[in-house]
């Protein structure tokens, strides 16, 4: 399946970034508050809190609004895509991005592309040699991170939420894992995507388009504008159906299955995953409705 960077771009917020973990732990009183996306799912006497998270994100806003704070006060178990605060596990998982193929950045990229990569990485004191040990997915992640860092998109609500929950003694449960997500990345990204990413990062108009998309998505999150994401997710499904099925539909089905099994233990459960997993006709919300849950937005 050949997927170009142009088509991959809208999916940036669907996989939890594990290599650009932010340092934001708390927010001042004057920090703008993000509205975000919150729901409850109820079946019988079981009510689950659902928090749509944002990753990557800038460290400019307070994600812990009054509703989120109230939810955490009544949470025994927080279920997330992956526990990215377990650095021992994350470090071990990074081996999945090491390239064991004879195809490397040095022999798959043109001289011009290698020159551009060296220019991109120069501020980080890295060059093409550092990328030659990585898979296409690893290279794309590194190159994209240069754009995110330049716009201060270096944190994630997921990380902050996990750390806050740990401070409160809340149990952390993984619906997926870092290993799972890296395997998924390796299966999706090709050398064509590496080339497209280089073109995006070094072309001012393409780079501006990508940054605008990130900012528009984050602004929609801040405002709680669900219509923006509904249109975005619908476009993804239309433009790249096979990719959408692997990255969105199948994951959402499995998440909903896991959630339905998990919440039968009598504990108070909160589910926190990337907000787009809760949006659209193939969302976790729709899958929970199929299993008899009533959904209400908070």
Automatic annotation (TrEMBL):
InterPro entries: TraB/PrgY/GumN_fam, YbaP-like. PROSITE patterns: PROKAR_LIPOPROTEIN. Pfam families: TraB_PrgY_gumN. This is TraB family protein. It comes from Clostridium paraputrificum.
């Amino acid at each position: 399946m050949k997927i170009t960077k142009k088509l991959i771009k809208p999916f940036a917020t669907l996989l939890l970034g594990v290599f650009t973990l932010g340092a934001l732990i708390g927010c001042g009183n004057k920090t703008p508050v993000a509205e975000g996306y919150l729901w409850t799912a109820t079946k019988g006497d079981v009510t689950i809190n659902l928090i749509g998270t944002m990753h990557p994100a800038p460290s400019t806003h307070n994600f812990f609004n009054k509703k989120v704070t109230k939810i955490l006060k009544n949470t025994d178990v927080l279920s997330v895509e992956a526990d990215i605060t377990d650095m021992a596990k994350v470090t071990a998982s990074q081996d999945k991005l090491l390239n064991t193929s004879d195809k490397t950045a040095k022999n798959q990229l043109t001289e011009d592309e290698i020159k551009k990569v060296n220019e991109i990485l120069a501020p980080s004191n890295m060059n093409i040699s550092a990328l030659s040990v990585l898979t296409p997915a690893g290279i794309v992640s590194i190159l994209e991170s240069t754009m995110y860092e330049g716009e201060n998109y270096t944190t994630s609500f997921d990380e902050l939420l996990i750390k806050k929950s740990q401070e409160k003694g809340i149990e952390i449960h993984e619906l997926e894992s870092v290993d799972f997500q890296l395997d998924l990345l390796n299966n999706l990204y090709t050398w064509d995507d590496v080339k497209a990413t280089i073109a995006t990062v070094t072309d001012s108009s393409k780079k501006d388009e990508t940054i605008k998309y990130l900012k528009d998505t984050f602004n929609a999150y801040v405002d709680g504008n669900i219509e923006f994401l509904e249109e975005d997710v619908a476009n993804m499904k239309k433009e790249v159906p096979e990719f959408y099925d692997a990255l969105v539909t199948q994951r959402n089905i499995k998440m909903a299955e896991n959630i339905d099994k998990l919440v039968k233990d009598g504990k108070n459960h909160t589910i926190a995953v990337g907000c787009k997993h809760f949006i659209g006709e193939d969302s976790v919300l729709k899958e929970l409705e199929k299993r008899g849950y009533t959904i209400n937005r908070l």
